[in-house]
Amino acid sequence: MVNLAVDLNGLSLKNPVMTASGTFGFGEEYEDFINIDDLGGIVVKGTTLHHREGNPYPRMAETPSGMLNAVGLQNKGVDYFISDIYPRIKHYNTGIFVNVSGSAIEDYVATAEKINELDNIPGIELNISCPNVKEGGMAFGVHCPSAVAVTEAVRKVYKKHLMVKLSPNVTDVTEIAKAVEGAGADSLSLINTLLGMAINAEKRKPSLSTITGGLSGPCVKPVALRMVWQVYNAVKVPIVGMGGIMNANDAIEFMLAGARAIQIGTANFIDPQVTIKVIDGIKDYMHRHDINDVNDLVGGLITE
């Protein structure tokens, strides 16, 4: 019997496989395909203080080995989540995280305060890295002072697990990682989407209404792996890795690079059962390599 349980700075997950925000709804959407309770954790759709319509259409575009999105954090606000969504998902026997975003630090703080009162939500993922909003989001996550300011402000009011989601759209991701670690982050998740764009040559127009958007999928994996490895060697808090994970082998690569858990995003759109297949694939890998504890994979990259 292999041990799949991982510990994120005091928060225990039954296995290292989580879902990425914005790709798994609130979990309910996938109940026909998998047992949500089999997952290590889910990160529900991005939530803000107030209702947001998101960006105009078109806001998704297919790219070679990936996709661009510019949804813009469309959601009905935290109060709607508390009154209508939370009662329907609080029974899940998995780690439920709420992805929290905002246009100002005060928005982040107010949203986190409300979620802090929900008994069956053990953590939030502080989104300081979304490239698809005009205010807030990535603006906080690409400079150390602003990243520290929002993390410290939320840390003062949020008493449970605080995961901070980092942007890849920076010169040195380790600087931001060390800064938010010092500001009180319990763990770090990375990477969010890379800023990209697509053009319709026939129409001579951008493929997205916002011109630029967030690039995800297999094409970003080498960048994500590199950043996870760099951050692992720079901080002490656990890392949750993501970026182009399509199968168990991809997930294992992220763990070898230093991730204690992983999130699966774009792959959910292609195969709604991919998370379970990744869990089974990790078990198979452990059996084949005579590994009894999945934690032995973390940071196990041999570089000599």
From TrEMBL:
Its main location: cytoplasm. Its EC number is 1.3.-.-. GO terms for cellular component: cytoplasm. Its cofactor is FMN. PANTHER family: DIHYDROOROTATE DEHYDROGENASE (FUMARATE) (PTHR48109:SF1), DIHYDROOROTATE DEHYDROGENASE (QUINONE), MITOCHONDRIAL-RELATED (PTHR48109). The keyword Cytoplasm applies. FMN binds at S21, K45, G46, N99, N127, K165, I191, G217, G243, G244, G265, T266. InterPro entries: Aldolase_TIM, DHO_dehydrogenase, DHOD_1B, Dihydroorotate_DH_1, Dihydroorotate_DH_1_2, Dihydroorotate_DH_cat, Dihydroorotate_DH_CS, Dihydroorotate_DH_I. One of its GO terms (molecular function) is dihydroorotate dehydrogenase activity. It is an enzyme of class 1 (oxidoreductase). This is Dihydroorotate dehydrogenase. Pathway: Pyrimidine metabolism; UMP biosynthesis via de novo pathway. It comes from Plebeiibacterium marinum. Catalyzes the conversion of dihydroorotate to orotate. One of its GO terms (biological process) is 'de novo' pyrimidine nucleobase biosynthetic process. Keywords: Cytoplasm, Flavoprotein, FMN, Oxidoreductase, Pyrimidine biosynthesis. Belongs to the dihydroorotate dehydrogenase family. Type 1 subfamily. It is found in: Cytoplasm. Binds 1 FMN per subunit. Transmembrane segments: none annotated. Substrate binds at K45, N69, A70, V71, G72, L73, N127, N192, T193.
